[in-house]
Amino acid sequence: MPDGPLLEIRNVSKSFAGVKALDGVGLRVARGEVHALMGENGAGKSTLMKILGGLIPPDSGEILLENRTLRPRNPHDAMRAGIAMIHQELLPFRDLSVAANIAIGRETTRRFPGWLDHAAMNREASSLLGRLGISIDPQRPMRDLGIAHMQAVEIAKALAHRASLIIMDEPTTALSNREVDALFNVIRELRARGVSVIYISHKMDEIFRIADTITVMRDGRHIETRPAAELDEAQLIRLMVGRDPLPRAAGGATPGEAVLEVRKLSRDGHFHEIGFTLRRGEILGIGGLMGAGRSELAHALYGLDPATSGEIRVSGKPVRIHSPPDALAAGIALVTEDRKRFGFIPRFSVRENLALSAAGSAVSNRRTEERVADEQIARFSIKAASREQAVAKLSGGNQQKVVIARALLHQPEILILDEPTRGIDIGAKSEIHSIITDLARSGKAVLLISSEMPELLALSDRLLVMRDGRISAELDPNQTSQEEIMRHAMPAQMNL
After folding, report:
1. 136 in Cβ contact with 114 (< 8 Å)
2. pTM tops 0.70, yes or no
3. Which domain holds residue 259?
């Protein structure tokens, strides 16, 4: 066996629109090791794994696999080199058989071109699954399998490609305890055969059950790598959240009457019996990990994906929100977490984006469009060459200001901000924070969803934490800590 680690990442950096997602990251993964990669949302884990999987290129740095330089241009390159990635959202070919899914891209054919040798493919699938201790009929359609068996098929596919490194991203999200046990048995079998696994999860109990080594990332940087046996849950949380809190924002006006009341609001499969009250002039923060149901809640309140049960009241009156126009009519506006997909039209100018948002309300002709655009540019200090500059040409912070300005043209009483500072630089974050506090002081009721705990602690008057689609805690930002928030955000322990 060659000397040295299987995988070595040296000083890898990656930026998006001038914002560093990875900053000189290094990582070493030994052969036959289960290496857990931990960090908050936005720590850089997914970006690093996408680079390894050939989905995006690094800006700088070096990757060595088996002591050879690796520069995957696409997932096929990565797979050929021996890296397989099993995503959180499995995407099998559901109408094809188990054997066909395992053989995708390398199907066995008979003497006649185009004639598949199904018998050979079935034998290979049975052999690979047998190596994992799993018995599945290779002719069975994928759509008939449960999540655990689908993952086993993905692992068998990785073995078929002779993967030496398998990346598993939140693999147990939809698994029962029994299925988790089965998956862990498969991982142990892989480890025994010399296959390395990078395991990404927020579930502490899983990490300490299966990992040999733990690496913590934070804010796009490598923080620490230690043997799992040398860490406990409290130490790991401290490594993950170890940033200093931001200064608390100066207090705004005393919150007034209830503007938004949510009672036992549910959306099947996403969140369950959510209840809270939001008051005029208040910033109510919502924290939690990816998949906790925070954005889904925001979408339900705005009518993008309506709730299936429960009640929403605005200023004491029940409202039915089945679409964004319903929400806007009720005085609710949303700044979505993905501004580039849903916040603006990139090729349109600042003026055109603002006019599009306010069509039928504040803007009715070109002269009015220009006046409104100039007012919003001045109000939010949007740095643009002119009102006619394409929004795609603005910095991330100025793009976000345009999105907020668009939302406020509807003069909502309630503003939902989902990850309002994601992907913008530190200076722009400070400006957005000032905008948020000024909105609350002016009497707006603000629902602030953020993955950045220092941001939540600095801006929120009250703080809710979501976990597994439910509210797990209500905290006073003046009397809590990042560690306490993380404890309430972590998925519930399994019954072992």
Report:
1. no
2. no
3. 248-331+412-496
